[in-house]
């Protein structure tokens, strides 16, 4: 299952802004990105992950990613910061 690490993580970020901050600080272990998110929203996350060699897992929908993060709305990006 694509969400295993996210569901079992002790700490995670939820949302594009928080995920970008975690990547910049070197805290993100793996990043999840919703495929149906607007490209201009997730492009900075994908670029930064490529530059810092952080693995990116593409998931089907923002709604499913939001549910995996235990929120009631969609989420474009999330990251595991502590396993």
UniProtKB/TrEMBL annotation:
It comes from Pelotomaculum thermopropionicum (strain DSM 13744 / JCM 10971 / SI). This is Ribosomal protein HS6-type. Transmembrane segments: none annotated. Pfam families: Ribosomal_L7Ae. The keyword Transmembrane helix does not apply. Residues 7-82 form the Ribosomal protein eL8/eL30/eS12/Gadd45 domain. The keyword Ribonucleoprotein applies. It comes from the Bacteria. Keywords: Ribonucleoprotein, Ribosomal protein. GO terms for cellular component: ribosome. InterPro entries: Ribosomal_eL30-like_sf (IPR029064), Ribosomal_eL8/eL30/eS12/Gad45 (IPR004038).
